[in-house]
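Sequence in, structure out. First:
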Amino acid sequence: LPLRRKDGTLVDARVKGRAIDPGNPLGGAVWLVEDVTEKKAKEAEHAATSERLRHSQEIAGLASWEYLPQSDTHLWSDELYQTLGYSPDSIDLNMATMLNLSHPDDLEKVRDGLSSIICGTAGAYSVVHRVYKRDGSELVIHDHGVPERDEHGNVIRIKGVSQDITDLALAERA
């Protein structure tokens, strides 16, 4: 709700009110007016930054993901769902699903890469492997992830990106 201050400047405001005596509507009310101009500007800035990131990921063929090993949970960005042809409600994201999407000849290097980062023998996960899209077609993906560890050194999260490098891989084969 736009309101004008005494000095004439306009601000975005949120107004809340409550009757002092709900049984007596003419008995007065208490009003709270909060200036939310700064909050709205930050929200607009965040939305613009998110849109730039989404656009950059689209151009680069990048998608982001997280893996939580303790709960065997995968979190995908919208771009990864789109790349692989799924919608968020059409696939159960866990390690078994991820391995089932991988080409059988690449399973060992995917498992080894994840195992080495979880066990602490590698500081990052970087694997080029083939995956199957929902329609059965094959993509070549470069996954790169870094671990987040707790105070005891246990991996609590792996944050990463997947880049579709299918066109590059096909060009290198030609």
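Second:
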Amino acid sequence: VTDDTFAFKQALNQNSKVWVPEGVYLLGPTVGLNSNNHLLGEDHLGVILKRKNQSNALPLLANADPTGGNTNITIENLTIDGNRTNQSPVGDSNFMGITFKKTNNSSIKSCNIKNCATDGVYLGASANAPSNFNSSITLDNVNISNCRRNGLTVISVKTLSCVSCVFEDICRRR
């Protein structure tokens, strides 16, 4: 397995829909998703986006423009592995699986998010503009497990829908 970060960034910058075949893909630092990006895995158990060992304390996936905002992002049918046993988080550093800041009409569907050194999913505001809320965010059939801090952190969301989501083994500080 090699570092696939550049390939993912390039594919998402050049295409609105990126289909990912089964396999394990090492990522880090953050892969940004632009407005209208759809990241679609072949199989939610067979497509694994895994944080590189000792990677930067940044989210694995995030919307690309947390200040100006993004719309219509979909992350679907894959597993995000935060690889927390091979990270060195300090305090509440940003080792999240997915972060949305000032994102509208976006969703995470049929995904497993596991082993994050902090949060599985973080829905926050931009540091420079805390009033820039997320809105119309959907988590549908998302399983979040074994995250050290929170499975789902909600800081700023106008509308959030969680359908058939499961949170397991959260906040184990081992």
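Remark: The chain has a mean pLDDT of 91.
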